[in-house]
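#struct-help
A.M.: can someone run this one for me? Single chain, 136 residues.
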Amino acid sequence: MLWTLMSIVVAFGELIAFMSPDWLVGTRSSIGSNISVVPTPEPYRPTLGLYSRCIKVGQQKMVQCGPYAADFTEIASGFWQATTIFLVVGIFLLSIVGFLAVFSLCFQSILGKSMFNVCGLLQGIADVNLNIAGVS
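D.P.: on it. Structure tokens below:
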């Protein structure tokens, strides 16, 4: 049961990390003129992730976050594109493991193979993909 819960938690954690805009965090800056009598707005940090970014546009007080790339070729660099591919494959495999882990609570084998062996193999392949993504 613990293995099932941890498999699902890890799959969601990787998905959240992929969607997070906090891969690169810029220096603190404040928007506005440096010479003013009124206090400057609170500083913010622009951020960029594999999939999304957060920026402050103009004099607005809200920070806007969302995807910055309309398609795969607009991702920042070839290394980030490779990281995206490996992360997506790893997250997909971990999602399958999470599904099979829940399925293993009812059935012990699939096509004559132990569910734990199948899930362990998939987790190993996902680990290789996530490690390669971390190196890219």
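A.M.: thanks! The beta strands are 24-25, 47-48, 52-56, 63-67, 109-110, 113-114.
D.P.: also worth noting: Confidence is low (pLDDT under 50) at residues 33-40.
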